[in-house]
Every structure is written in structure tokens, then in C-alpha cells.
Here is the input.
Amino acid sequence: MTSSTERATMAEAPCPGAEMSTPLQRILAATDFSPQAWQALERAARLAKTHGAELALLHAFEHVPLIPAWGDPGGGAWVDEEALLDSTRAHLERVRDNLTETYGIPIKASVEVGAVHRQINARADGFGADLVVIAASGASGLARRLFGSSAQSIVRTARHPVLVVRRPADSDYRRIMIGTDFSEDAERAANFALRLAPDAAVSLSHSLEQSTVRIPAPLGLEDNEREAHLARARTIAAQGLAELADRLGRGQAETRVFDGHASQNLVEWAATWNADLIAIGAHGKSRLEAGLIGSTSLHAISDAGCDVLVTPRIE
Here is the structure.
């Protein structure tokens, strides 16, 4: 059974007098025109309006297929690349106009051909994006590109935080669950999460994955020695979370120390705490292959019922 150490009372609001951090300046939102992608665009537009940020939309696909024109089943006529690109641009512009009318903000839009993760990263770099927004699922599998076979292609190569949207953007983020391993990358991710949603309540958590490792005596520790070491580790972790909360200006934040794997704890606690956003930092030699965001964690995060914010390491 998962055990936890709890400090303070659940915080429903940030500390009084906490200052709002620097607003986002530029947001890039990728779309595949699916209903799920529309949710991501609405979240991006809501954030852009709240922060007074510039918003740019991007639709990218791997290549332009040659397809028979309608009404010519024999394949004598083909839709050429330029015609298809023009049609796609027109569609994206209608989406942009809809968002502009709804949220009252100016929006840019572009269509690119090439590997999706490369186009997203290139556009984010060129635009100077503070944040990239993408849907958790969609008709062309943007979620699978993020959390499936091409997960590493987007997040591991990302030079900008990536917000993965699962829920409708009915309101601003109210409850952020921040996972940390006490690294600089994790603290940077926590700070960015509060920059994204400065008025949200916060829960900080750390998982003691070593608590699941047992080496029998005489090679390892006796049970009583092992428990004593774990108890000390829990105390140190709880103190670390308290210090992190103070550095973030959220001294009354909920803090939890869990036994077990971060991948499972993140998802379970986010659901229990009713978080609408999980914030984590990607770091390590291959970004997602070490630390908090490991290969097993990636699968668990893909099952989260709320939005997920992944902040990459800054090289």
C-alpha cells in the first residue's frame, strides 16, 4: 500500500501577497483539425488572452500525398501538392478566424510539410515560443507522436515547454500537481508551471522509488535498518518539499512524499487531489530516459486524466 507524509493543510489558494511572475509572451499551438486538437487550441487561446501573449497556430504533416480527384475514380486527375496546401491553409485560417472571434485576440497561422516534431520545434524556435500546446489525442495521432512511438521525437528534442491538453478549456487552471526529484530541472519546471498559472493552488510531491527495492540480508540491510533508512529519507524529502514550497512562494502548499514509482504516484495523486494540471521536468542524458520522466513514467503520464506540462532541460 502506498504510504505518504503530509505537511500542512491542503492549500486552495496561493500565499497572500504572492507576486505574479513574468507573463508568457508567445504561444505556439499545433493542430490536426480534430475535436481534441480544438480543445488544445482553445486552451492556447485562453492562455494567450490571459497573459497578453502572441498566439501562432501550426498544422504540419509528413508529406503531401497524391490522391485521385473527386469524380475521377479512374485516377486520371490528381490533386496536386499546391492545391492541397492551399486548401489546408484555408481551413487553418477559418480555424484561426473562429478563435479570433471567440477570444478577441490576433492569431497567426502557418502550414508546414515535414516531420511533425521537427516542424513544431523549428516553428517554436523561429517564433520564440515560451510554450508549445498540443492535444493529447487526435485524428492524426498527435498524442501517439507525443506519448507513443514518436514521444522522444517531440519531448526529448523540445527546447520549449510542452503543454499536452486532455480537458476542455472551460476555465483557467485551478489546481497544479507538481512532481519533483529536487533537481534544478524539476525546480525550473515548477517555476514555469506557476508562471503559466500563477493563481492556481499547488501540491508538491516526491516519490521514494528506492522504497520498492529489497535486498535480503546479509547482502542488504536488515528490515529494521532498512525501515530506519527509509524513515530518514522520508523526513529529508518532506523537508526538501517544504523548502521548495518556500522558494516558490507557496509556503502553505500541500506536500506529499510517496513510496513507490513516480509514474504511478503522479497519476494517482493527481486524480485524488483533483488536479487539472500535472507539471514535471524532463532531464537526463536522453531527456525522458532518466530521472522523474523515465521510460515507465512516460506511459503512466499518458494515462493521466488531466493536462500535462513538460518542461525540458535547458542546455
About this structure: Residues 1-20, 138-151, 284-297 have pLDDT under 50 and may be disordered. Residues 59 and 94 are 13 Å apart (CA to CA). The radius of gyration is 22 Å. Residues 4-70+78-311 form a domain with the Rossmann fold fold (CATH 3.40.50.12370).
